[in-house]
Design goal:
Structural class: mainly alpha
Radius of gyration: 19 Å
Order of helices and strands: HHHHHHHH
Largest sheet: none
Helix content: over 70%
Distance between the termini: 65 Å
Length: 156
């Protein structure tokens, strides 16, 4: 009888925790500070898809991982339309997301996300990338361009 009582209490509690965890992940957009919210709101309201039909096959596959993983916690418009274009910006962003308990991003998925976002930014956000490159030292520019080339070469 005691076992049945514990069993009856355990499963509703477990179901409640699962619902809370799911809510926390999708609540990320609502739990950001006002300054950040004001900065990302235009991104969220923009396009939520990218035409990747002309991208290399591997990058198109990485886009599927990006769409699946990143939409678990926020609107895809947020990363698609963000002002991030430098490889290090994407690396830091993915690192932050990976360390959230609800993200469930594996190391191999982390690499695919990085490769997709770096490649996509170098094509679709080229003007923003060029503007940011101009603010860097020649050495830093070279490092950025080398990282982008390394990703592009992997999929060509």
């Amino acid at each position: 009888m005691l076992l049945r009582t514990r069993f009856a209490l355990f499963f509703p509690a477990l179901a409640g925790l699962a619902l809370i965890a799911a809510g926390l992940c999708h609540a990320d957009d609502e739990q950001i500070d006002t300054v950040t919210k004001a900065r990302v709101d235009p991104f969220v309201k923009g396009s939520v898809t990218i035409d990747v039909s002309k991208y290399p096959t591997g990058i198109r596959e990485n886009y599927k991982v990006f769409s699946r993983k990143c939409s678990q916690c926020h609107n895809l418009g947020r990363p698609i339309n963000s002002d991030y274009v430098l490889p290090d910006e994407w690396s830091r962003c993915i690192g932050r997301m990976k360390h959230r308990s609800s993200s469930d991003i594996s190391s191999s998925e982390e690499r695919k996300l990085y490769d997709f976002l770096v490649f996509d930014s170098s094509i679709r956000k080229r003007a923003k990338l060029e503007m940011k490159l101009q603010t860097l030292t020649p050495d830093a520019q070279r490092k950025v361009e080398d990282k982008i080339k390394e990703v592009a070469d992997k999929y060509q």
